[in-house]
Design a protein that fits this description.
Shape: elongated
Order of helices and strands: HEHHEEH
Radius of gyration: 21 Å
Structural class: alpha+beta
Strand content: 15-25%
Organism: Edaphosphingomonas haloaromaticamans
GO molecular function, one term: DNA-binding transcription factor activity
Distance between the termini: 51 Å
Protein name: HTH arsR-type domain-containing protein
InterPro entries: ArsR-like_HTH, HTH_ArsR_DNA-bd_dom, WH-like_DNA-bd_sf, WH_DNA-bd_sf
Number of strands: 3
Number of domains: 2
Largest sheet: 3 strands, antiparallel
């Protein structure tokens, strides 16, 4: 993913740093593509991948909402523990 953040790349270049067979690596890419995080297209004999920025924005929005909810729960827990400690 970090490599694709720099720009689109062929599957073979993406797979190079990993110690796995190309078909296995391609399976991982298919999962990411099915999730909508990446898109790919055939160019000649190569398959090129790119990030789908909109999906990352959606994920970031969701994570921010969840972070806020978790912070609120921790604040309530802290208040509860403070009150319980005073009793």
């Amino acid at each position: 993913m970090s490599r694709l953040a720099e720009g689109e790349a062929p599957v073979t270049a993406l797979a190079e740093p990993f110690d796995m067979a190309l078909p296995s690596f391609a399976q991982h890419l298919r999962v990411l593509e099915e999730c909508g995080l990446i898109a790919s297209e055939k160019r000649g004999r190569s398959r090129w991948c790119r990030l789908v920025q909109a999906r990352f924005a959606e994920a970031a929005d969701w994570m921010e909402k969840e972070r806020r909810l978790a912070a609120e729960r921790l604040d309530r827990l802290e208040l509860y523990l403070d009150k319980a400690g005073e009793e």
